[in-house]
Amino acid sequence: MSSENEPRYIQVHPQDNVAIIVNPGGLPAGTEFPSGLVLQEAVPEAHKVALVALQPGDAVIRYGSVIGYTARAIPQGGWVAEDALTSPPPPALDALPLATETPAALPPLEGYTFQGYRNPDGTVGTRNILGISTTVQCVAGTVDYAVRRIKQELLPKYPNVDDVIAITHNYGCGVAINAPGAEIPIRTLRNLSLNPNLGGAPMVVSLGCEKMQPSQMLPVSTLPVLSEEPYVVRLQDEEHYGFEEMVSALMEMAEKRLERLNQRKRVTCPASDLVVGLQCGGSDAFSGVTANPAVGFAADLLVRAGATVMFSEVTEVRDAVHLLTARAANEQVARDLVREMAWYDEYLAHDNVDRSANPSPGNKKGGLANIVEKALGSVAKAGTSPLAAVTGPGERVTTKGLVFAATPASDFICGTLQLAAAMNMHVFTTGRGTPYGLAMAPVIKVATRSSLAKRWFDLIDVDAGKIATGEATIEDIGWEIFRLILKVASGEQQTWADRWGLHNEYALFNPGPVT
Amino acid sequence: MSSENEPRYIQVHPQDNVAIIVNPGGLPAGTEFPSGLVLQEAVPEAHKVALVALQPGDAVIRYGSVIGYTARAIPQGGWVAEDALTSPPPPALDALPLATETPAALPPLEGYTFQGYRNPDGTVGTRNILGISTTVQCVAGTVDYAVRRIKQELLPKYPNVDDVIAITHNYGCGVAINAPGAEIPIRTLRNLSLNPNLGGAPMVVSLGCEKMQPSQMLPVSTLPVLSEEPYVVRLQDEEHYGFEEMVSALMEMAEKRLERLNQRKRVTCPASDLVVGLQCGGSDAFSGVTANPAVGFAADLLVRAGATVMFSEVTEVRDAVHLLTARAANEQVARDLVREMAWYDEYLAHDNVDRSANPSPGNKKGGLANIVEKALGSVAKAGTSPLAAVTGPGERVTTKGLVFAATPASDFICGTLQLAAAMNMHVFTTGRGTPYGLAMAPVIKVATRSSLAKRWFDLIDVDAGKIATGEATIEDIGWEIFRLILKVASGEQQTWADRWGLHNEYALFNPGPVT
Ligand SMILES: [Ca+2]
Ligand SMILES: [Ca+2]
Ligand SMILES: [Ca+2]
Ligand SMILES: [Ca+2]
Ligand SMILES: [Ca+2]
């Protein structure tokens, strides 16, 4: 392997006329690469260098796709900065290839298992958690209080239960419950309480006078167990005389569920019982060449093993939609994808913004010039298998294979919606670095650069930056992620986020207004 | 005083043709009142009885105002149920009386003081709290972790500091930061960190790559102290090698602020330094005859003492706007009120809903037939003084006297926006009951009914239900609330919410889309 200081760039696709600088801190003007290319100006780390001279209006090609057009002439070896690019319009939704290049199914991958908790509905938990659902924000303070006491006084008696979590949120009242789009937060909350890691033992805390009643959020008909015993504590019920009796009622119901959860044991489950949600946040130009392709390789391994793999983040898929509709398993799936893109286009246009609102200053500093470049790097997470299904925000995913679960790109909204979609393992790639974590499912964090992985040694679980330095291949890191998923799913290894207890709040996607 | 079981109803205004039933559990058909009125059917507690026979299309009058028109004939002594009323349209905004009936200023009330913490900017805290602001949701898990350690390891060394709170939220990235309306969540977060109870010693935790940068949320120019020493910890800064160093950096900056806050002492302040936010939640038909008028009386006392009193909740004011524009101190204030109403009308109409989305099932069960009836009861909180100023959502209030601070009615969004408006005391009335609480300012909870106050003896601070039973007058309870505000503001008495540590999360009002 060549020295760390040797100037390096990465060209992803043979047709690309730009490449990105690998060296930490970037490279100065005059740097000569082994290929003979000489930098005409300083180019920051992860930013793009022109491999050929570009005239104004020339197409700039990365990932083999046009990411924009040059706004001015750029010499060979020049920096292709954000302001040197104009963005192309997004692909029109009415002229997309529908299932025209459906890939052949990948060869099955057999023999991979993990130790999980099998649920009555056939899903499998990677954790054994008591979740306490809430219909409305008003009860959050009381539920938080009760959870503190349950953890102190009850949980120690039930050693097979991993945790007790309150599913609190800002919805349920003070909202237009009949507005278009209100079904999204409502089904999200329902499906969160059905997450495989909660053992099929939901309990619900309601105030009483809220707009979203328990019968709407989680009707008795949802699960057989709900008709067998009470599952709702209503704080306004006349039977509760004072705060302490409310807390006692919560703790009593919680203890019944803890008893049941405590009797469960991990059993050997095929890898096909995994529901892995993929996401990226704080992305940079390395995301699309290191972490995301490695996750894409792991996604293919999971699909080959029969698992469900979800990718999401509509605004980061929009500009690559033509690649995905072509890859759909059939025309209906392609049309479902178009439907979700159209819904989001309209959602944004309704407020006079568009997908260009997505990239953050950090993305741009990290070398991502625009949403097209970000999207092409983002969809690398999806690997190469056929797109098997598409679901709307907050819907439960039941299909095996690669699924597009439509969500905003906002990290915690996406994570929350993927949990509602039945995610039992989360893989999160980051270039700029974010100390992201969720209470309901383990989060494996993958760094796009070794410098981040080294600096955040106690937050990052996998260093995909080795791909850029040549120390590892995409396949190596893909297998590392795949094996780590099985280990963490089995409870044999803890993620860094779980080690520190870094658990962000649930963030609902509510497209409707508040009142 | 007459027996508890004697049938009672309350007619608020002499012109009213309906009254509400006071007796717990309601009254059966055939009940005869001392006035001679006989119930023709059972009427639930807090619901309306017709005092005269009503023909279809007749105006139903409560609070001296039309709350709707009868959809069918109702006999004298009949139940005026929700479905027997059709709602009138809201007052047109282009034909309102502007400052036509400005009341004379109320006589000054002198000599009332409290013990508070005076801040460099002239505001006064009722608490001495270290607040840790955040630019983006990504840092919330880390800040929560640090706050747990600060409370355990540092706070005990600084006994004059009341609490350490993390101002976490779901904004800062994954949002359209340039969308119309984005200034609302941004200024809300800025002004939250300037709340008088935080002692003018803000510190900010940033990730680094987020859209809302510290310089946008809290520019150095905001406060003199910000240019004197560092006030931002940026987790992505290269100086932090690993999670534990990030936490150390947070704790180090926090300790400097704890040292300074610990040197502060309560001093005697005039009642005019109070900024009292008023709100109602879980309202019923008693709200407008017991708790809200009593709070309105206390509001007048506060205004007479020179304090700032805010009321809010646009959708609950909209149908009473004509009463308030007439009461404005001058035409400009009246126009400002119209501007906020128009903004909200448009905000709701943009998503095809209107103010009728406000009342909850609990409101209706509680006897509030529609938003008109709810609004007329809600504005009773505002007392009788001239309307001195109107501010937009998240703006800081600097005017003394009665101020309309525009907010949604949603309890925690309203509370959060009132904290941003510089609230140092909160008074919250409730009929159905809600265990509401805030970490940043004390919340005094006032029950509309004695049955609730008795059942929730350890959550409700003031029982205004005694007004309905005749055990106390509006003036009695108004004075009780006023005196309790001074005591709680002085730290001499704890509210029930603070006793249990019931502190709901901040809920931002973001009219823009997420990305
Ligand atoms: Ca992303
Ligand atoms: Ca994301
Ligand atoms: Ca929390
Ligand atoms: Ca209200
Ligand atoms: Ca409210």
UniProtKB/TrEMBL annotation, chains A, B:
One of its GO terms (biological process) is D-galacturonate catabolic process. Keywords: Lyase. Residues 16-86 form the SAF domain. It is an enzyme of class 4 (lyase). InterPro entries: GarD-like (IPR017654), GD_AH_C (IPR048332), GD_AH_second (IPR007392), SAF (IPR013974), SAF_UxaA/GarD (IPR044144), UxaA_altronate/galactarate_dh (IPR052172). The keyword Lyase applies. One of its GO terms (molecular function) is galactarate dehydratase activity. Its EC number is 4.2.1.42. CDD domains: SAF_AH_GD (cd11613). Belongs to the UxaA family. This is Galactarate dehydratase. It comes from Terriglobus albidus. The gene is garD.
